[in-house]
């Protein structure tokens, strides 16, 4: 059998393709876990570390495979193609139906990692057995392996995830692994001992995987219905996040990456509390900066002040803002505020905007999502609040939504301490928003806050003077020893730890 001539090109192509699949499986698993559990650094670190270790185990085990290398290689590709193709589906179903998501995630990582670790050593030996030039073999194998890894790592965030989503991408990669198995099976059948058996398995797995790829959107819709209480009436994947809108009778809810953004039945409570305490402190606020707030609901409240001449709204997700501007249901809630000529839209990172802008504002309203990942965490750091201070007028003030002082007590007071240590006078307050629970904010100013200056004269559905006073009172279980809390630094994101601790409890 050693006398048979082996054509190398199909095997080199196989190396390139399996390398793409390998890196994308890592990204799919880590991306799914980030979407469902949050904390991308933790999820990617665990996935990569465990995956690499499993690959090491696979590489070690490859030394015990001494015969029928082509048979073993096809077995590996069929296994990876089927398990890897099903990986995202299995993870979403496990999350929706059971409490065993993390063990299942670990199991899938280990299984795929071991099989991937077997691939390159066995493929290298297949080539070397019939073309004895180790120098050339290793150069070809490793170079195409690395190139494939680059293509996969770039293609996933730029093409695959935005256009196919996680479930269809996993099925596509599974199909690619099966294509490799089929290419080896039909091109090198003279080297294979169980051709008919492998052809049967290949056919079954390919049908299942292609069916999963074709019906991936329907499958995703079915699973998503398990993750949301109400009927989904709109969904889209933007470059930055998954937007889902649900409806139950008169209750319209918008979710970003699975986290509720607002509910139409009580969002006015949140947005009145966010905007009016600070705006009513200012004599004639003219120039306002809103960071986040792409739904336009904070703008609706700001426009109740006739002195407002200009609002700069900074939101990184243009598709989110355009959705809230054009969707009739959201437009009805925000009263078309995003179309007002006084609003100037900037689609960029809030941190970068503050770094390069030279504008000075009477009020800065920070309406960003909770700090549940690293990119959001930097918008809750000491440097970020310092940058805000550089853009405040002499009498200027700012307010920050600060998660729940009840559910995430340490996180809430961490934000408070971080702002305070930057030299601002800070007033924390909170209220009950039925769809959110107990929710908190921080008002900050360069000078002492005169709470008696809060005099709300605009129309509201919730706020009264008595409400304002009560919002500044915290119960015993909503307070921590501030000395035990660290502030959130740009290079030490302790807020992520506090927030993750809170999430793990609820």
Q: Any descriptors?
A:
17 helices; 506 residues; four-stranded antiparallel sheet; seven-stranded mixed sheet; single chain; alpha/beta
> Roughly what fraction of the amino acids lie in strands?
5-15%
Task: Report on the biggest sheet.
Answer: 7 strands, mixed
Shape: elongated
Point out poorly predicted stretches.
Answer: none
Instruction: Round the mean pLDDT to the nearest integer and report it.
Output: 92
Structural class: alpha/beta
* Count of beta strands: 11
Helix fraction by DSSP (H/I, runs of at least 4)? 55-70%
Tell me the number of helical segments per DSSP (H or I, 4 or more residues long). 17
**Termini gap:** 62 Å
Indicate the multimeric state: single chain
Strand arrangement in the largest pleated sheet: 7-6-5-8-9-11-10
């Amino acid at each position: 059998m050693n006398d048979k001539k082996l054509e190398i090109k199909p095997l080199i192509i196989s190396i390139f393709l399996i390398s793409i699949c390998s890196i994308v499986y890592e990204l799919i698993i880590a991306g799914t876990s980030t979407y469902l559990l949050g904390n991308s650094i933790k999820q990617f670190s665990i996935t990569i570390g465990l995956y690499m270790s499993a690959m090491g185990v696979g590489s070690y085990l490859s030394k015990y495979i001494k015969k029928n290398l082509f048979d073993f290689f096809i077995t590996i590709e069929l296994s990876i193609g089927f398990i890897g193709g099903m990986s995202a589906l299995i993870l979403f179903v496990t999350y929706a139906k059971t409490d065993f998501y993390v063990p299942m995630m670990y199991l899938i990582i280990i299984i795929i990692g071991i099989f991937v670790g077997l691939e390159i050593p066995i493929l290298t030996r297949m080539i070397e057995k019939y073309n004895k030039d180790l120098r050339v073999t290793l150069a070809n194998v490793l170079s195409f392996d690395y190139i494939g890894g680059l293509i996969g790592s770039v293609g996933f965030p730029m093409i695959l995830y935005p256009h196919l989503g996680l479930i269809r991408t996993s099925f596509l990669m599974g199909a690619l692994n099966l294509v490799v198995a089929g290419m080896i099976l039909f091109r090198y059948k003279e080297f294979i001992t169980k051709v008919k058996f492998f052809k049967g398995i290949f056919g079954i797995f390919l049908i299942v995987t292609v069916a999963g790829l074709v019906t991936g959107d329907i499958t995703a819709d079915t699973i998503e219905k398990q993750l949301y209480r109400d009927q989904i009436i709109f969904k889209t994947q933007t470059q930055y996040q998954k937007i889902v809108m649900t409806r139950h009778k008169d209750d319209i809810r918008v979710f970003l990456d699975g986290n509720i953004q607002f509910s139409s039945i009580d969002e006015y409570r949140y947005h009145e509390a966010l905007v009016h305490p600070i705006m009513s402190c200012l004599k004639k606020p003219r120039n306002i900066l809103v960071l986040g707030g792409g739904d336009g609901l904070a703008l609706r409240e700001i426009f109740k002040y006739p002195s407002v001449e200009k609002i700069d709204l900074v939101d990184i997700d243009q598709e989110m803002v355009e959705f809230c501007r054009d969707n009739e249901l959201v437009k009805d809630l925000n009263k078309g505020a995003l179309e007002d000529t006084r609003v100037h839209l900037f689609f960029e990172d809030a941190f970068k905007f503050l770094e390069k802008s030279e504008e000075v504002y009477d009020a800065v309203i920070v309406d960003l999502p909770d700090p549940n990942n690293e990119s959001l965490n930097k918008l809750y750091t000491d440097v970020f609040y310092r940058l805000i201070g550089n853009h405040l007028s002499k009498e200027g003030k700012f307010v920050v939504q600060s998660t729940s002082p009840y559910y995430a007590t340490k996180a809430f007071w961490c934000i408070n301490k971080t702002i305070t240590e930057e030299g601002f006078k800070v007033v924390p307050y909170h209220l009950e928003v039925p769809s959110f629970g107990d929710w908190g904010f921080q008002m900050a100013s360069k000078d002492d806050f005169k709470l008696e200056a809060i005099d709300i004269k605009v129309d509201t559905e919730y706020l009264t003077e008595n409400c304002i006073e009560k919002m500044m009172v915290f119960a015993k279980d909503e307070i921590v020893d501030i000395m035990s809390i660290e502030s959130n630094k740009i290079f030490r994101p302790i807020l992520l730890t506090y927030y993750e601790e809170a999430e793990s409890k609820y």
